[in-house]
Amino acid sequence: MLANAGAKGSAIPLAALLISTYLLFLRFYTNRHVWLINNPLATPPPVELVVASLKSENTSWVHTHLPDWFRSVYVVDDPTARHTVPRNKGREAMVYLTHIIDAYDTLAQTTVFVHAARFAWHNDDPDYDALPALRRLDPARVRAEGYVNLRCVLLLGCPVEIRPREDAASAEVRANGTHPDGRPLRANEVYEQAFRELMPGVEVPERVGVSCCSQFAVSREAVKAHPREEYVRWREWLLATPLADDLSGRVFEYMWHIIFGKDAVYCPSPAECYCKVYGLCGLKCTGMQCEGRYDFPKYSTLPNGWPRVGWSGEARPFSGPL
Known about the structure:
The chain has helices spanning 2-30, 32-38, 60-65, 92-103, 130-136, 139-145, 164-167, 171-176, 187-198, 220-223, 228-240, 245-253, 256-259, 270-278, and strands spanning 47-53, 70-75, 110-115, 147-149, 209-210, 216-219, 265-266, 285-286, 289-290. It is an alpha/beta fold.
């Protein structure tokens, strides 16, 4: 009995040590800005994942499958969350701007901005799975390019999504927020005015095109091409604009690439994108997409049981981790 008691006694400190180490790990990876402030000799991380989420969304996959990444998961509708925003307004744009503002002096060499859902219709993957793309992403390419869209397929957004001057709604329609027949405003109809307010002194482009949907990676240098105060001003615009959330968020969706130094129409060929960004070279590509990479889904909501259950309830082969 004494021997057993001794064994139990030695196990308690070990368990406490493991718990303490785990908590330190969590603090290091989920609140690294505080860690950097408390450890001024530490260097910023090479890569950081920034996630825009709601309380109702499951982001456990980020921690489970990307344990070695620095990651900041923002919860926009929870003011008590470790990472949150001034107001849940403007969709993911509020998260992205808030992170840049808060982390401006300790930005990662590469920051990757994504939505909360691992499986979503817009993720550029045969299973609409965000994880393989993140694992394959080449940070060196991001640093060389400054900005890289996580979506290589050109369906939706390219070659031209918005013609600011041609598409602009009248001042009266913009003021009312709807067309006379009740139709809601679309992002392309408010883009010109929003661009003038956000980018004063910059000529409004005639054409804007970039593959959807506000998931991208950007280098520290590209972010710092603008002073922190500019991002603060853009967030103030987002907080103050009378535009609906979907409209203001969509304005930024078609401005991020411009903000980070790309031409207003930024639609590199899918073959080039898959090869340089993800190392998937030699794909058979024709125009807008590459064989075996992305098929436009039947619906914007994936079926229950995806990725192992298909659109008609059939079993799907899926070998990735869940």
